[in-house]
Amino acid sequence: MRSVLLLDTSAFIVGYEVVDVDMEHYTVPAVGDELREGAFPRLRYDNAVHSERLRVVSPDPRFVFEVKNAAAKMGEEGVLSETDVQLLALGLHLRDEGFEPIVVSDDYSVQNIADSMELGFKSLATQGIRRRFEWVTYCPGCHRTFRAPQVENVCPVCGTGLKRKPGKKVKATGWVASSGLDQKDEGV
Question: How far apart, in whole angstroms, are the C-alpha atoms of residue 6 and residue 68?
Fold first, then answer.
């Protein structure tokens, strides 16, 4: 299988240049929408698209559904943005087409879900996750735990604001050490 990179908004923000890495690059339309017009990250994105080094693709809706189910199972529901969901769904879509996708993101929730769905992931500005968490939502007032998100993130029993804490921890297996991601003349 051929490895391809899926770029999250954070990749453009930290200065990632697609022309410096000899791999195919993909992203979703919502990434461009998150970048402010005229700012350097948006210019990087626009240049990558116009030079045809970055393919902007919308994933099949069935993969969006699959990501949302995985997020709910991992306790990440409501934490992932729609852009995050779309990017992870594109990873599943590309894997289904025979590619080996590597999600490039500094968002720990994105990495957590990528790892749970057996997608590779790579950080640029942070260390990245070493363990995958299944998050537990709990009430610090009455100490009840909840599997599903609650309305307005408030305990339905006592009215206290809910919090999250790591539940089950598993060693992350999707972290990619390099795989051609090192940019010319500088480490990424």
Answer: 18
